[in-house]
Design goal:
- By secondary structure, the protein is an alpha/beta fold.
- The protein is about 45% helix and about 20% strand.
- It is built from 18 helices and 17 strands.
- Strands 5-4-1-6-7-8-11-10-9 form a 9-stranded mixed sheet, sandwiched between helices. Strands 14-13-12-15-16-17 form a 6-stranded parallel sheet, with helices on both faces. Strands 2-3 form a two-stranded antiparallel sheet.
- Helix 3 crosses helix 4.
- The longest helix is centred in the N-terminal third of the chain and has 24 residues.
- Bound molecules: 6-O-phosphono-beta-D-fructofuranose.
């Protein structure tokens, strides 16, 4: 079935641009999301003929779908954006999202397994994989219904790796792109996956006309996996990369999503941010340097080692005691998974230990907040003298790009060489191996010592590199590259 008001441009992602909660009186409260895709899609204008297909993530979303006409939400809830939300059976959704996307593919691409004991691919895993296939098929069906003849479809991320091939089988007329927001695993690690599933994920993405990544490093890793796992032909010709497999050629592209400077600068100076800035300044105390980190409490963000590095700094260089405060925001993420709950508890424990060990009257060495508050994050960005971004591995890391844009008196960036942002920001950062606590402590020390002049110069260059490809252009580039 093809919808009557089909679209010329479609975006598909697990998490959509709006989410819902059911109020006590039974009415629905809509909350609009942010991020690169939301700003990116706004570039084609409110009148553009676009539909966003996403999954219902919770009970509020499911209720909104039940009240919607043909699955289409009220555009007023998403700033005029047409959204088709899919009410996939809760058990199927949970197995696909928690089991395969977040506990398997995410772990593979971020190198997160503790390999002596995991992963274990058993019967239960196979049931989750079947759910992942069903969940991807639900997206492919909806996109096939919503797309006009020859439309452009931009499929997002590891949740939807099978969609491009499934959609091509249903609608060969469409132009299909896939974008990975994560890193891509190197072949030896990728091959932890069962052979048939390793191949299915690759051939799923190769169903697109163009598969794109955040950095050349991840694009190359994907091509390497195609060569090693599938025996596909990889051609590198004057900067253009293609993968040919089973008679089809897929172009491989790179679009390094940047920070949205206009939005950030305006948003960071509203009253709610000013108010939080005042509160943070009060908590930090007069004349102290501030080291800031802002993350989801995500295993790959390496928050525990970041805290241990701060403890090492205070231990090994006592001159910083009472002269520095670490402001660490670690917001809730993926609480359905036990390993994330345990990680969150570990973050709190190490933070408490640091304060216990070092606090003095009038100096709290570490301020940890775990409740998500975007205005407070922006206030911390403005206050930062040093930003700590030390992921084990990260597709890009937008925090590394946003802080230099917003910081008031310039920021020294301590940056993991395993973040995608390293390729663009590494030259003006204090670069660290994320596993090396002592080296990270030394980098924090050097970053704190950077002269005002040098810091201002570096910040200017960091902000320029960070905003080179704003979300709107990032999105338009992908559309035009599809032809
Ligand atoms: O990094 C990939 C990504 O999909 C991001 O776009 C996003 O920040 C994150 O993962 C979201 O994860 P979740 O939807 O599970 O909270």
């Amino acid at each position: 079935m093809v919808a009557t008001d089909t679209a010329r441009v479609l975006v598909a992602s697990n998490r959509g641009p709006v989410s819902y909660a059911v109020r006590e009186d039974g009415s629905l409260e809509a909350k609009r999301g942010g991020g690169g895709l939301v700003s990116g899609l706004s570039a084609i204008g409110p009148d553009a003929d676009a539909v966003w297909v996403c999954a219902a993530l919770g009970e509020g979303d499911r209720e909104a779908v039940r009240r919607a006409t043909d699955g289409r939400l009220d555009p007023a809830d998403s700033g005029g954006q047409r959204v088709r939300m899919l009410d996939i059976e809760p058990e199927v959704f949970a197995a696909a999202y928690n089991g395969i996307a977040n506990s398997t593919l995410w772990f593979v691409h971020h190198l997160l397994f503790q390999t002596p004991l995991e992963p274990v691919f058993d019967e239960a895993f196979r049931a989750q994989w079947a759910a992942y296939e069903a969940y991807n098929a639900a997206f492919a069906d909806a996109l096939a219904e919503e797309a006009a003849e020859g439309a452009a479809v931009l499929v997002q991320d590891y949740h939807l790796a099978l969609v491009p091939a499934m959609l091509r089988a249903r609608r060969p007329d469409l132009r299909i792109g896939h974008f990975s927001h994560t890193p891509w695993a190197p072949p030896d690690y990728y091959r932890l996956l069962p052979d048939d599933i390793a191949a299915a994920v690759l051939t799923g993405i190769l169903g697109s006309d163009r598969a794109a990544f955040l950095t050349p490093r991840w694009a190359d890793a994907f091509a390497d996996c195609c060569a090693k796992v599938l025996g596909a032909a990889v051609l590198r010709d004057e900067g253009a990369l293609t993968v040919t497999y089973a008679g089809r050629t897929t172009r491989i592209g790179v679009h390094g999503l940047g920070a949205d400077a206009d939005f950030l600068r305006e948003r960071a100076h509203r009253a709610d941010v000013d108010e939080r800035l005042g509160a943070l300044r009060g908590a930090v105390g007069e004349g102290r340097k501030v080291i800031v980190r802002v993350d989801r409490t995500e295993l790959s963000k390496n928050i525990v080692r970041g805290l241990l590095a701060y403890r090492q700094l205070l231990t090994e260089r006592p001159q910083w005691r009472e002269r520095v405060v670490h402001v660490a925001f670690a917001y809730p993420s993926r609480g359905d998974l036990a390993v994330y709950r345990e990680y969150t508890a570990a973050v709190r424990q190490v933070a408490d230990d640091i304060n216990e060990e070092f606090r003095t009257t009038g100096w709290e060495p570490l301020i940890l907040h775990v409740r998500d508050d975007f205005a407070r994050s922006l206030a911390a960005y403005r206050l930062a003298d040093v930003a700590l971004v030390n992921p084990i591995r990260d597709g890009m890391n937008l925090v590394a790009k946003e802080i230099p844009v917003v910081s008031e008196s310039g920021v020294s960036l301590v940056l993991s060489r395993e973040a995608g942002a390293y390729e663009e920001l590494g030259d003006d950062s204090f670069v660290v191996n994320p596993y090396d606590i002592r080296a990270t402590a030394r980098a924090l020390h050097e970053a704190l010592l950077l002269s005002d002049g040098e810091r201002a110069e570096r910040t200017k260059r960091l902000a320029a590199a960070a905003t080179a490809l704003p979300p709107q252009q990032w999105f338009l580039d992908q559309l035009s590259a599809l032809g």
